[in-house]
Amino acid sequence: MNTVTELQTKMQQVVSVVKSTTPLAPSITNTVTINFVANTQLAVGGSAAMIYLPDEGITLAQMANSFYLNSGTLEPFYTETFPATAKAMHEQHKNWVLDPVALGIGTMRTNLMHEFKSYKPTIIKGNASEIIALASLWELIHHQDSTVKGVDTTDTVDAARQAAVALAQYTSGAVVVSGTDDLVTDGQQVIMSHGGSPMMGLITGAGCSLGGVINVYATSTDPLTAALTGVQIYNLAGQRAAELANGPASFQTAFIDALYHATAEEIAHNPFDVEAI
């Protein structure tokens, strides 16, 4: 189990590395939020590359140290692009981030998420309902009733704790459950990160872009540190942006600025709690 001080040191290190190296952090993501995802990745120091085609996924898998796959708005050709990219990252033992958006609303989406089980995403990020649904689909927990409401959760973060731990233990990676307080686990410890703002629920793409920013950090550190650093900077930036915003539109602008200006020390010292499982 990592101590708070150890986690803070690792977070400061990866923030500094990312800002000095501008790592390539490609994504196949939600077309509704693609612009916001790219802008947040740029704000924290990454290099965004948004692609769709199978051959491009395989090519960038050779070039990048981490990849972000988000199932928010699926197209038929993603049945080829997603598995090909995930397989390439898995075979090269590289990090890749899965956001199982709206799992449960269609057969194609469910089948893709089931196929991803064998490619073991190193980081999984979702809301509580999505995390419960994925752990149930992969038969890692006893079936737990959970329903999605579009892309929104109907479950609490606490209700998804068992599912998150089971997923992390299966993948030997990290899992993020986003909510009022965000849960991060590597299957050995549970970390609760605090901050953020209710305004984050009033803009499109807060969750999707979190996955994109976690992906930036995953290019340069281990899954747990990447996941926690992404959550920490989001909670810090969300709180700061809310203090300046007059509404959702100004909040989104202030949020990107807050991501850009956040220092490594500020991110690492955003409030969080650690407990052993």
Explain what this protein looks like in three dimensions:
This protein is an alpha/beta fold. It has a single domain (4-276), classed as UDP-N-acetylmuramoyl-L-alanine:D-glutamate ligase (3-Layer(aba) Sandwich). The model has no long low-confidence stretch (mean pLDDT 94). The termini are close together. It is globular, with a radius of gyration of 17 Å. The protein is built from eleven helices and nine strands. Helix 3 (54-63) runs parallel beside helix 4 (78-91), helix 6 packs across helix 7 (161-171) and helix 9 crosses helix 10 (248-261). The chain has helices spanning 4-21, 34-44, 54-63, 78-91, 107-115, 128-137, 161-171, 206-218, 223-244, 248-261, 264-268; strands at 24-28, 47-50, 66-70, 95-99, 123-127, 174-178, 182-185, 189-193, 272-276. It is 49% helix and 16% strand. The protein has a nine-stranded mixed beta sheet, sandwiched between helices. Its cofactor is Mg(2+). Substrate binds at residues 50, 205.
